[in-house]
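User: Can you predict the 3D structure for this chain?
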Amino acid sequence: YWIYSEMQYKTYIMHPQLLLARAQCREDMRKHLKSMTKENVRKKRNQLGQMSHSQPVIVCEVMLDQAQEFESMIDVCKEGLHYCSTLSLDILSYLLIEELGGSVHRADKPLVLDDDTNLGRWLLNLATFAADMYLKHPRVEMQGLLQHIFNRLAGDSFAELHVLRELFSTMGGIKYDVSTVATEDIHARSGGERLRLATEFPWPTDALFNKALAEGEMGMGKEGGAKQMKDYQSAKKEREEATKWLIHNLNTSGLAVPMIVKIGQQISGCLLSEGAISAKRVKYSSWLHKQCQHTLLVYVDFLWRRMPVGEYCKRLPSPLELVEQLKLEPTLALLIQRPGMRWNDPASVLDLSVYAKDLIAATPQNLKSNSPLLYTCFWSLTLNDIFVPHDCYDVQMARLKKALTDLEDTQRLDPKAKDKDIKKWKENLALDLDKMEKEMKKQIENKKKIQARIEKEKASLVAAEKSYRTVPQFFLQTCIFPRCVQSPEDAVYCAKFIKLLHHIKTPNLSTILTYNMIISSFGPMVFSRTEQEAKHLGMFLSEMLGTLNSWGRDEALFKRECDLFPGFLNIANPKKDKKDSADDKPSKDDKKEKKEEPITFASYQQCVKNWHKKLSEAFCTCLESMEGVEVHNALTILSVLVQGTPLFPIHDTYHADVKGKVSRMTDDSQHAFGNSITVMARSINGRLQMCQDKMQKGPKKKTAIAPTAATAPPLVPPSASSSDLKKLDSKKDDRKEERKEEGSKEGSKEGTSRHKPDDSDRVRKRSRGEEEGASVSKSKEEQGGDSRTVRAKKDSGSTSIGVEARGARAPDAKQDISSSSKQETSSSSKQETSSSSKQE
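Assistant: Here is the predicted structure, written as structure tokens:
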């Protein structure tokens, strides 16, 4: 590299003739590249090779500049390197490092744009060109580039991680973008290697029957199905060769393990880096976390699939060393060590049970109990251990069978396809089909073994505790919540693992209480997550709500999967007198009185409605927040739940509440969170409008309850006689005596237990007040019956609306004094004719 730097900066300056030759070569090179396209690059690339023999530094410089500036020139420059010498390619590897290192001091090439969430366009193009170049020429020097990225990462520069991620994705064949992954991709990745390759890199057999594509322009047929099949096979060989050399460079440079550890350290340390603190923007900190986490997932996935498990685990320190000495989080240490851990398997390279207690102690938690066996079982398994994607296997195997059947019809095939090639394609397709069938059977057997082991150990997974809440709290805080936000596969795995523990009838673990705790803690989790973690949390909720909604929708399914299961028992403890001290231990009689009643289908449906109500309140609270991160995360999670068939909201009441809050975000003038929030809100608002007709009838909102006839005061007409008033008082006394009897019955049921004042206390106080009022009215009536009549006449001055309202509340009073009401109407008509002064 020192020699190349001398050639680049000093050699040309020493001689004026060389300066002139360099300027002329640059001009010719730019003209030549302008005339090249994807169609004619194969004809003109030999001229680039000739120019590179005499001026390798200048040719590579111009090609790098064009590739960084124009995205369409990446493929042209990559194909133009076909006839370049080994020296030219080695110089190109040096210039890549020079471009990445020199950009730090150049203002026209920012690594990160001003919005703090996007990389510079030149860096994205450079990363794509570097990955394609190393895929085409894997023997080119790469250790210098890997060392440069590691040094920049150690210096708290995270933009170069995109280059590393592109290398692993392109050369290793890892199509893994956590920001755009779909449910079908997650299911395909939960299968074996054959299923993943068939989903990410399918055979282009359909192009063989496209006659228009086979004929092409002027009948040349250059892009026909036969050519695409050959390109597919050659690309497969290129990836296999590039993967070997990438692993070789990682091992030779000694950066395989240090790179993993450094990225894991930066996941938690990036928030305290100098750039994040100086920027003082939450978006930038979230972007840094996303870059590190995404790169770690791609890197670890590449090593899991391309390196033997034994060799991989031997190079890594133990989980306890990663946590205590290298300061990694326990969840990241277990993520890195996951391929070597197999629960209760003799072939397991690493026994997690040895480190379980120490890792639990290192986890930030405040719990009164723990279960190391449950912790070990949860973290030692992956999604493909407990789930087999039968649908994905069936689709891919049907596709391969159809391709084999179509190849028999040679008349419909591309005329460029030869019999020899067709024979090879048939053999390869049949071999892939056979391997996929064997892989599916192997995964089904593995799932049965894992489930049998868990079912055998289920009695010791969770120890019996005095409080039935401690076990779900430990399980959620140390297992579910840390892992469900790591990756899309882990989000689905957490939801399916809870369901698995429920199906095998794990004792001492309340499934319905676990679900209730998850939904109750949803609000705080939204605020404390990054954008990428919020997407993973939405996938976890989507998988979980799909299960809960299906149980609440189908009674037969509920009885088959939930009725009389230990996880769906309602534990009712006996009520104790408050006089007893809290420190007293429960007696044997109390333990006998402890009941476990099964939850009925009707009560479970009410639980589902309450959970959706909690989620609706949590979403409305988050969308009303003044923090942009909380609003953005809530919209991110909601976008996952509303896709396709909505999992939330499913009731019209909560749908209206959530839609009202989201529609407020569709206008920029209603908030100050930027255009990204507005775009997301408009998309979600459109989905909510589309699924509005599918909503179920939810519980109505509570309104102010009008007083009933039993509690409303009776209407007293102005012309009521003393006998009528006595009848009303007697009816009052009868109703009061009835309330007294009801209160005495309730008191006898409760016994002598003390309780806080509730609605029944207020009713009894109200009845006592009415009794006192009645006694006062009786005493006044004995003194003079005319006083009440005079007071009633004064009250008649109120508006007719009030009279009608009070009359509607006391229908029984109207029946008793029907005769007096006629007198009232006649007297009121006389009073209308009189003057207002006389009335006063």
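The longest strand covers residues 569-572. The chain has a mean pLDDT of 79.
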